[in-house]
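Record 1 of the preview.
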Amino acid sequence: MKKQLFITATDTGVGKTTVSAGLCKLLKDIGVNVGYFKPVETGVEEVPSDVKLLTDITGQPIEEAILYSFKNPLAPYPASKIENKKIDINKIIDHYNYLRDKYDFLIVEGAGGVYVPIVKGYSYVDLIKDLNIPVLLVARAKLGTINHTLLTIKALEGCNIVGIVMNGFSGDDISENTNPEVIEELSGIKVICRCKKVENPVNECYNKLKFIVDFFKV
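->
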């Protein structure tokens, strides 16, 4: 059975790409035909760095894993306005369907949080609902994450949130000790792993995310 997973986060810079990379590497290493898709990447100078990192793992050509790139480090909608490049949501959905059929496991990565606009009046939460795809939520470990995580979960109401990855544990913030349990208690959604702030975050995610093999029965 073909499987898909959307990686989103409570904010930008939380660790969606490193979690996506860890998962792709893990699945690739156990022999799964895994593909990656990031519909839009912004802040691109020459090569989209997030997509390059992931395609180096999956073996895909870069142009297959991304449809739109923008130079300005903004949300897709304002970046597209400034650079006068139109984003076509139907094209994104059609390409997703193509990749879903091509790969046994497809990982889709958003940009920023779920309310980040892709086009006017259409954000990543709308895309998640239109794709009808399970969601893995990446949240920060430190103070402030309870509010951000619960707000994101509220925004994803009606979606299939498979779990939460809490990323960037440093041991320097007392709230890191209580945040996972409080978030689980208040949301009813399991914190499935905790990733430390380390020099090689992809390997950290790789080692901590082996749950995915059992969860998806890969």
